[in-house]
Specification:
The protein is an alpha/beta fold. It contains 13 helices and 19 strands. The strands form 4 sheets. An 8-stranded mixed β-sheet has the order 12-16-15-18-19-13-14-17, with no helix packed on it. Helix 5 crosses helix 7 and helix 9 packs across helix 11. The longest helix has 21 residues. The termini are far apart.
Length: about 450
């Protein structure tokens, strides 16, 4: 065969291979997005007003990049090749550990203490929880806060060679003493989870397994002084989990490997008020007439496997994934106990997402002197609260452990020291509708003294 003919055949084969993924979109059914992927929507020639869309070519490029035929299979093959040959992860959010363990990349930063929150952020998170507790107690309910440890915190021995943690304490170790100072009840899950010899987290997932959830239940209910019948870890059998782990699915979207999980020798007796679509539903309600007490739990994805264990021991329970926390759910559920669970890597959420509840009124004695700096306040339509006005603000500076108060005429309220602001120290406050906003001022501690700062209203 002539050299030119071979070259033409090779070029033809190459072009055909290049066309298969895009041309295959016409014939191959599209599979669902893997794990937490967000795929681009189809491009549109026109905008909502009917005018031509100048971004249509870019939108088409983004759409094809996420929807071409065999995309998930090719991603899986590439990830498997990188892992087998180069021992590196093809997915930035996933770290390849030892013995087949996978870790969420962000939790490695937590392990190394390289993503430290500021003293102000940690104090603000603890004080926000103290304000939540004050509100709950005024409604006759008690609070328990807990942190679901990162997988890397419980099993650092399976991490790759990522280096030695910095000598400074990590965020959680710095945060726990602040909770004690603020008087917020806290259940530390690290010690019981680290004390077991069996695996309590999935190898290919970022979460604890059923055994880990059962041990977390035991710790939480013990902290609440609630009588319960524990699920003993020794009385369980190993079964396949029935699904790939979230980290595994991110890395190998068409893979089929499953982790081993546990099944206990007794069944749950609670029932759902309404059958949820899945364990990650935003709102799950349960009841168990054989038990007493009522529970409201704000939780994240670690609550997917934890909530059945807690539902088993309460007469009624409401599990919410709302963020920020909607404390009005306390009145809807009539709960006498509130548990808040947050994963370790998301401790910073406490400083960004202010809980939704009325700001507590405070008393002011005397007239504080004028402080240095200024503040700004704006009405916000997000996360509304009935009969209240949500205000978001910031001020230029305050002591690291300073509460923030806002004065409207003769009324003084304490704000939650949480929010998102690129200009200064954030705060969020819910005040009664009709509160006059003109001539408002913000009060804070500066060098240990309470000072007033002028507020600009937007």
């Amino acid at each position: 065969m002539e050299l030119k003919t071979k070259a033409r055949l090779a070029m033809g084969a190459f072009l055909t291979a290049c066309l298969v993924p895009s041309a295959g979109m016409l014939f191959v059914p599209e599979g669902p997005a893997a794990a937490n992927q967000q795929l681009a929507p189809p491009p549109s020639l026109t905008r909502e007003d009917g005018s031509f869309n100048p971004e249509v070519l870019q939108e088409a490029t983004d759409y094809i990049a996420g929807h071409f035929a065999f995309r998930q299979h090719l991603i899986t093959a590439d990830a498997a090749l990188n892992a087998a040959v180069f021992r590196v992860s093809a997915e930035d959010d996933v770290v390849l550990g030892k013995d087949g363990w996978l870790f969420y990349a962000e939790t490695v930063d937590n392990h190394l203490h390289t993503n430290q929150l500021s003293d102000r952020q940690l104090w603000a998170g603890a004080h926000t929880l103290a304000l939540v507790q004050e509100y709950l107690q005024s409604r006759g309910a008690r609070l328990l806060f807990t942190v679901a440890p990162n997988k890397a915190t419980i099993y650092p021995e399976y991490l790759p060679n990522v280096g030695t943690p910095l000598e400074d304490k990590g965020n959680l170790d710095r945060f726990i003493p602040l909770l004690a100072t603020e008087g917020v009840p806290y259940a530390d899950l690290r010690t019981p989870l680290q004390g077991e010899r069996v695996s309590l987290y999935f190898r290919r997932d970022s979460h604890w397994n059923t055994l880990g959830a059962a041990l977390a239940q035991k710790t939480l209910l013990t902290s609440l002084d609630k009588e319960f019948e524990p699920f003993w870890l020794s009385r369980s059998q190993s079964v396949l989990s029935g699904r790939p782990g979230d980290l595994y699915e991110m890395l190998y979207p068409t893979g089929h490997a499953q982790d081993w999980d546990a099944r206990f020798d007794r069944e749950f007796t609670f029932t759902h008020v309404r059958q949820p679509r899945g364990p990650d539903d935003q709102r799950i309600e349960t009841e168990n007439p054989a038990k007493t007490g009522s529970l409201l739990m704000f939780r994240d994805s670690f609550g997917n496997s934890l909530y059945p264990f807690l539902a088993e021991e309460y007469g009624s329970a409401l599990f919410s994934r709302s963020m920020p926390w909607q404390l009005a759910l306390l009145d809807q559920s009539g709960a006498d106990t509130v548990v808040i669970e947050l994963v370790e890597r998301n401790l910073g959420y406490l400083t960004k997402h202010a809980p939704v509840f009325p700001a507590p009124a405070r008393q002011l004695n005397g007239v504080p002197p004028q402080g240095q700096g200024e503040g700004q306040l704006a009405v916000s339509e997000s996360h509304p609260l009935e009969k209240h006005l949500r205000l978001e603000g910031w001020l230029t500076w305050a002591d690291p452990d300073s509460p923030i108060y806002v004065q409207f005429g003769g009324s003084l309220y304490e704000a939650s020291p949480a929010g998102i602001s690129g200009k200064g120290i954030p705060f969020t406050i819910y005040v009664p509708q009709g509160t006059p906003l003109e001539n408002a001022s913000v009060l804070c501690m500066q060098q240990g003294a309470l000072c007033a700062l002028p507020l600009t209203i937007q």
